[in-house]
Amino acid sequence: MHYSRPNSVAEAVNLLGGNTGNAFILAGGSDLLVRMKGGFVEPSLIVDIKAIAELRQIRATDKGFWIGAAVTCAELGESEMLRAAWPGVVEAANLIGSKQVQGRCTIAGNLCNASPAADSVPALVAAGARVHIVGPNGSRVTAVEDVPLSPGKTSLAPGEMVAAIELDERPAHASDAYIRFIPRTEMDIAVASAGINLTLDADGTIKTARVALGAVAPTVLRVDEAAEALVGTKLETAALERLAETCSAAARPIDDKRGTIAYRKSVVGVLAKRTAELAYKRARANS
Amino acid sequence: MNGIAVSTAINGDDIEFLCRPEETLLTVLRDRLGLMGAKEGCGTGDCGACSVRVDGRLVCSCLVLGAEVQGQVVETIEGMASGDSLHPLQEKFLEHAALQCGICTPGFLMAAKDLLERNPDPSEEEIRFGLAGNLCRCTGYDKIVRAVQDAAQVMRGDAA
Amino acid sequence: MNINAKTQIQEFRSVGTRPVRQDGVDKVTGRARYGADYNMPGQLVGLVLRSPHAHARIKSIDTSAAEALKGVKAVITAADLPDHADGDEGLLEILDNCMARTKARYDGHAVAAVAAIDEATARKALGLIRVDYEVLPHVTDVDEALKSTANVVHEHATSRVDPEQNVPLNVHATEEFGHGDIEAGFAKSDLIVERSFKAEQSHQGYIEPHACVASVNADGTGDLWVTTQGHFSYRIVCAQLLGMDVSKLRVTSSEIGGGFGGKTHVWAEPVALALSRKAGRPVKLTMSREEVFRSTGPTSPASIDVKIGVSNEGVITSAYAHLRYGCGPYSGVWGMLGAMTAFACYDIENVKTIGIDVRINRPKTAAYRAPSAPVAAFAVESVLDEIAQKLDMDPLELRFRNAVKNGSRSSYGPTFGTIGLVEVLEAVKSHPQLNVPLAANQGRGIACGYWFNIGGQTCTTLNIGVDGTATLTIGTVDVGGSRSSMSLVAAEELGIDYDKVKTVIGDTATLGHNDTTEGSRGTFSSSMATINAVKQAIGVLRERAAKMWEIPVDDVVWEKGCARAVGEEHGNLPTLSLAEIAKEAPNTGGPIAGHSEIVAEGVGVSFGAHICDVEVDPETGATKILRYLVVQDAGRAIHPAYVEGQYQGGAVQGIGWALNEEYVYGADGRLQNAGFLDYRIPVCSDLPMIDTVIVEVPNPGHPYGVRGVGETPIVPPLAAVANAISRATGVRMTHVPMSPPRVLAALENAKVT
Fold first, then answer.
1. How far is CA C55 from the centre of its chain?
2. Which residues in chain B have Cβ-Cβ distances shorter than 8 Å to C685?
C-alpha cells in the first residue's frame, strides 16, 4: 500500500488517474480505516486530501456556500454562517459518531460511503445540495441524491473524487431540520431518519418542501409526495398525519440487527412529523 | 522498504519515526514509541480508549494513520501532567474514585480535557454528551461526571 | 485456620474512609500496564484462525503454505495441543474450546494459530491456512435446542435428574431446589400469576480485550503475563493443558481492564503458550474486539417460566420456576445458579425451581457478574410486580411481607444467618425518590436481588520495611480498587496511617494459591487473610519489642501502631514505634513479616433493592432512565467510594442489558453484532446519576463485618427497568433487552388484543 498526501486537486486527480489498483480517498478516515481494520478493503493507494487547501475551506459563494471535501464535521459545527443558514445540515453532520469522530469525519466522506443510514445525506438531499466532482475529464456538478447508487456504491467514475458540497443561500422564512432515531443517545447508526427543508410565506404557509428519509431504503429516499402533503399547509395536524403516512408508505426498509421492517416504517413517519415541526419552527423564526 | 518517515511533535517533543503506510497512529504510539497510555479497546472508533489530540482536535488514534501526523502536534495522556503535578482532571478523577479498572481512564481524561478547554462551564448534559464517545464499563459514569464537574470548577478558578 | 468472629472492632480509624487509591496515579497518567502493555525481548505476534461456521466437522487443516511464509515461526492446530486431561472431561472441554479438536462448535471457535515476526505477516499466514469443513446443522436458540428435532451440539453424555425421562440430548444438566408442596400451596392461594420470559445473551463488555505475553523455554519452564481475574487458576489450567509442571509456570497478572467474570476462564492463553513452545520465542497474543465478542464467554441466553401464588394479603403461598439457560457447546452450572437465586429473596412455604443447562452452538458461556441471577430475578420480580398491581398493593409492601429474615429457610436449602434484606427495604422506603411525582408515560419499578458471595483459598504476606512502613502482598487480583481497601485494613490492624502501607499483587511465585477474583470474594477473603497476616506480624513485633526491652513478651501489647509495656514493673517505659522496632530488626531476629494462608469461611450474603424511574416514548418505544437508586447491604464498607462504584457500575451494566445489549445471531449461526457499534453498552449520555445507599448489617462471619458487594448490583436492574416500563406503558414486558423495536411491538400487540 502507498500513502500520498497531495497539495492540490490536480495532483490528487493525477494520482487517482495513474493508479491501476484499488485507490481510496482519505479525508476523515472514520470509515476507511474501520474497513481496513476489518479486512474488508485492501487499498493499494491512499490519497490523503487534507493537505489540499481549497478542500479544507468553508466559504460563501455568490450562490451560497462551498464546503470543501476535507472539512470536518466539527468544523462545520463551528461555522456560525452555516449553522444560521442550514441548521438541519449542520445538526445532521454533528450527529455522525462521537466527538472524536467529529474531529475527523466529513460530509463528503459520509456521502461517498453510500450508506443508506448516513446521517448527513438526508439533510443534504432535503437541502437540495450539489456535489462538485473532479476527475480525469474535468469537473462536473450533480445533485447529492445522484451520488449513492446502492449500499456502498456511488455514481463516481474511476478516478473521480468529490471536491466540495455546495449549498444555496438561505432565503427568509425558510429553514431545515434533521432527526434520526437511534437506540442509545449517541454512538449509533440511524435506524431511521428524516431531513426536511421548508420555505414559507410570510404568513406561515409552506411554499416549498423537500423531504428525505434515511435507513429505510437501499439509498436515501427523497419523498416528493410527502413534500406535497406539506405545501400549502401551515403544518396543521392533518398535514402532519398525511406526511407521516406518505413517509411510512414510501419506506421500503429491511430487517436487520438495527431494526425491523415494521419498526422502521412506523418510526420514520413519527420522525418526519417531528422533523417537520422543528424545521417549521425554525423557518418561522427566520424572518 | 515501504516505511514512511514522519516528523511530528508529541507532548512538546520533536519526534521522528518510521511507519508502514497502513499503520495507525495508535500502533505507532504504542508499538514504535512506547507510549502505551492510549489503549486499544475496539480499533474501530467506538470506545474512545485510544483518544489523543492531533493539532488540537480530539481523535481516536485508531482511526488516524501514523503517516498523517507529519508536521502536526500530537498530545497524549503521557503529556497531561506537568512534571510531578497532576492536571486538575487527573486529581479529581482520583479524588472522586472515577475509575475502577482504569483502562478507559486515559481516553476519558483526554476527552474531558478537550471538552473543558472548549467549554469551561458545561452543564451535566453537555458533559454527558461530550463524553459519549468514551465507553466505561465499570463505573456507570456517575463518578466520572462528578469528577469532571469538580475539575471544571477548579479550572475556572471558582471557589469550591 | 479460622477467624474468631468475635474480634469485632467497634471504632474504625482507617476502614470507612475514602483515600485516593494507591494505583491511581499510574492509571491517570497512562503508566499502568495492562495485558497488552507489556513486551518481552524477541517476542512474536500471535493470531488465531477462527471458524466462520456455527457447527462444522474439521476434515483437514493444511498449514503448509502458512508455515512456508517468510517470517512465520510457528503454526499450530489441535494436534499441537495433545490431550493431557487424563480423562478429566472438564479439562478436555477447556482444551477443545481453546482449539477445536474435531469440530468447530460455534462461530468464532479457534481452529489454528500462527506466530510470526509481525502482525502483517501473521495475518497473511492466517489467510494461507486451508481448513476443509463439513458444515453441520446448528442450533443457537435455547428453546429450539430443546426440541426433539434439534441437532445435537455435543456428543458428550448428559447428566439428568431422571435418566428414565426422555430428555432431549442438548440438555447438559438439570438441577432442582425447593421445599414444601407447591401444588398444595397453589391450591390455597387467592391469586396465581404465571408468565414466560425470555432473555437474550449479553456480554461482560470489558473495555480491555484479552491479551497475554507467553514464553515457554526448552527446559519446560515458562512465564505468562496476562490480564486475568485469577492468575493462580490460569497457571493450573494452562500447565495442565500443556503438560507442564504447575510450579514451573510463573503467571503475572497485569492490571486488568475489566473482567466481570469474563476473565475467569482461559481462552487464548494456552494457545499463546503452545505457540511460544513451538516457536522457541515469546509470543504476544491480543484479541481484537470482534474476537472478544465472538470467541470468549458471554452470559447465557435464557428462557424462563414462573408461577407464583399469593394470598389476598400478599403472602406468597407457592412459587415455581422452570429456568432454561444456554451454556454454549460445553457443560455449565448456569441453570443451577438461576434455580438457586430465583426466589432467594423470599421466605416461601412451598417453592420449587428447576434449572436446566442447554447446549447450543454459541460460545461457551462464562460467568458474568452474579451469573444467571439477573434473568431469574427479571422473571420472578416481574411476576411479583404484576401481583402487586392485581392486589392493588404497594410493590414495596409486597416485598416486605415476603422478605427473608434472620433464620429464614432459603428457597435453595440453607437457612440464612444475619442478613439485611429488611434493612435494605427500610432504606428504600425512606428514600426521597419514592416521593417524586411521575408524569404521563413515566413509570417506577422496584426489584430485589440476591447473590451468595464466596470465600475460598486466600494467601497474603505483610512485610515490615526498615522504616516502619509496610508492604502487603496479596494474590487475589484487584479488579476495581481492592488494593486500597487492603491497605486500609492493614493500616487499621497495624494502627498506622493508610499511606504507610503499600499493597501489591504478587505473581504466582510469590504467594501460595489464591482463588480467582469471582463470586464477590476479593475484598471479603483478602481482608480476612490480611487481618490474619497483620496479627501475626504484630506478634513478631511484640516479641522484638520485648527483646529490646528485655521483658517478657506477655507484658507487651500493641496499640496505635506502637508496642507498649504493661504491668507494674515496666509500665512506665516509653512506647516503641513500629519504625523503632523495624530499625532494630537486624539485631533482634531479622526481617519482620506476617503471613496468612486460609480458606476464607463465614461468607455473608448480600441483598439489594433498586428503584428505577423511566419515561417511555410511546411513538418510538425508546426508554429514558430518569432516576435510579441502588440500595444494598455491604456488611461493612471498607472504602465506601468503591462500594458505591460497584453499586453504580453493576446497576448500569444491568440497565444496558435491560434496554439494548444482546447477541444477534443470523440464520447462518453467525454473530451479527460483534462490536461496540451494534452491541450497545450504555454511553454516558444514556444515564442519569445513579444514587446509592450503603446499608451496613455486619456479617458476623468476618472480623469487620464485610460482605462481598460486587455482584448483587447487577441482579435487580433488568426487573426494575422492566417493571418501570410496564407501569409506564400499561403493558407487561417479558423479553429483555427491551429495545425500542421490542417495546413498540409490545405496545402495538397490546392495542390489537
1. 29
2. 125, 128-129, 131-132
Phi, psi of C470 (to 5 degrees): -130, 140
Task: Determine contact, residues C665/C55, Cβ cutoff 8 Å.
Answer: no
89-128 in C: which are within 8 Å (CB) of A?
A: 123
Q: Which CATH architecture has domain A2-168?
A: 2-Layer Sandwich (3.30)
Alpha-carbon radius of gyration of chain B: 16
- Per-residue pLDDT tens digits for C620-638: 999 999 999 999 999 999 9
- Local confidence band at C168 (pLDDT 50, 70, 90 cut-offs): low
Which cell goes with C313? 394479603
pLDDT at C189: 98
**b or e along C532-548 (b: 16 or more beta carbons within 10 Å of the residue's beta carbon)?**
bbbbbbbebbbbbbbbb
| Residue after which a domain boundary falls, among B28, B44, B79 | B79
**List of domains in chain C:** 24-32+455-600 (3.30.365.10), 44-136+209-256+263-295 (3.90.1170.50), 302-453+604-752 (3.30.365.10)
State whether B58 and A103 contact (CB < 8 Å): yes
Total domains present in chain B:
2
Number of separate helices (H) and strands (E) present in chain A:
11, 14
Give pLDDT tens digits for C708-725. 999 999 999 999 999 999
Mutate to test the interface with C, among A115, A257, A265 (most CBs of C within 10 A): A257
B109 touches A at CB < 8 Å: no
Residue C346: strand pairing partners:
C403
- B21:A50 CB<8 A: no
pLDDT digits (tens, 9 = 90+) for C206-227: 999 999 999 999 999 999 999 9
The pLDDT confidence band at residue C3, using thresholds 50, 70 and 90, is: very low
Residues of A in contact with C672 (CB under 8 A): 256-257
Hey, is A127 helix, strand or coil? Answer: helix
What's the rounded mean pLDDT across residues C649-675? 98
Same domain, B75 and B103: no
A174-285: CATH class = alpha beta
pLDDT at A101: 97
Longest dimension (CA), chain C: 92
* Chain A residues touching C680 at Cβ < 8 A: 183-184, 187-188
Q: Measure Cα distances from A83 to A99, B53, B126, B148, C204 in Å.
A: 18, 25, 19, 28, 41
| Contact: C28, B105; criterion CB under 8 Å | yes
Alpha-carbon gap, residue C339 to C175, rounded angstroms: 7
Pick from A33, A50, A100: which is nearest to B51 by CB?
A100
Of A187, A259, A267, the CB nearest to C683: A187
Q: Does the CB of C680 have a partner CB in chain A at under 8 Å?
A: yes
Type and span of the H or E element at A224: helix A224-230
Q: Given the C-alpha cell 423511566, which residue does it identify? A: C614
Helix axis angle, C334-341 relative to C373-391, nearest 10°?
A: 30
Mean pLDDT along residues B132-141: 98
Q: Mark which of B57, B79, B101 sits at the end of a domain.
A: B79
**CATH number of residue B94's parent domain:** 1.10.150.120
**Does the pTM exceed 0.95?**
yes
Q: Map C692-708 to HEC letters.
A: EEEECCCCCCCCCCCCC
- pLDDT digit string (tens) for C484-540? 999 999 999 999 999 999 999 999 999 999 999 988 899 999 999 999 999 999 999
**Residue appearing with cell numbers 414559507:** A200
d(CA A168, CA A175): 12
In this prediction the ipTM stands at 0.98
Contact A257 C677 (CB under 8 A): no
CB contact B25 to A (< 8 Å)? no
